[in-house]
Amino acid sequence: MKIIHSLMLITALASTSALANIQLTAKDGFTIKGEYFLSPSTSKGAVLMLHQCNYNQSMYNNIGKQLANNHIHALSIDFRGFGESKSVKYDVSKMSTLSTQQRRKAWQDMSAHWPSDVQIAYDFLRNKVGVQGKIGVIGASCGGSQAIELGMNNQIAAISFFSSAQNEKNIEKYTGSLSNTPTLIIAADEDGRTYTSAQTLFVEAKHSNSKFLAYKGKEHGYPLLDKDSNLTDAIVTWFSHQIN
What we know:
Mean pLDDT: 92
InterPro entries: AB_hydrolase_fold, FrsA_esterase, Hydrolase_4
Shape: globular
Structural class: alpha/beta
Number of strands: 9
Largest sheet: 9 strands, mixed
Order of helices and strands: EEEEHEHHEHEHEHEHH
CATH topology: Rossmann fold
Pfam families: Hydrolase_4 (PF12146)
Helix content: 25-40%
Radius of gyration: 17 Å
CATH class: Alpha Beta
Keywords: Signal
Signal peptide: 1-20
């Protein structure tokens, strides 16, 4: 198990609350913030939730609460540069003022840290569930590629792609290393490359518990949770069956 560089539980909102604000310290000292949805200490299942790049970790609030209610530890983080994980150097909201070349470089510099930042979040959950515990990961849109990178280097019990388009390189990574992992794929049929790559991923998925939830329309990620009031329950139920 990799060493957690630094992590600190900051504030429990209330003693009876299922939600706590956390901050994790990255290798370079940067602070990654997120929400930890508390589950009993005896729980041996966990889910790491990675948001899409036009939103932040709060998109998983309802899913996190329901996972905790099902005795599953859940953690959602803000990627470096998003939500509460911002600094003078890393702030996606300020990139629109940059030239195309500057914006591209700023994005590359920022996102290059994401795999190691996500690893620290995984280590937080691994510390909660122990070596024998099971950890799943869900990645929405850009979060899906981070889920693949995490799965390539760690023991992942279940993986979900939520409106997450994958390029050929990532599909090859999934096929070669993760296709035997239970996989939940969610996409809308008019969501361009997101849907076509979702179809490819499902064809490559080999585990019998893998599932493809296809929707009519153009919704991408979080809006699907509003479109289908049963989707949150479906996601939570599926993960519960894989890791509990």
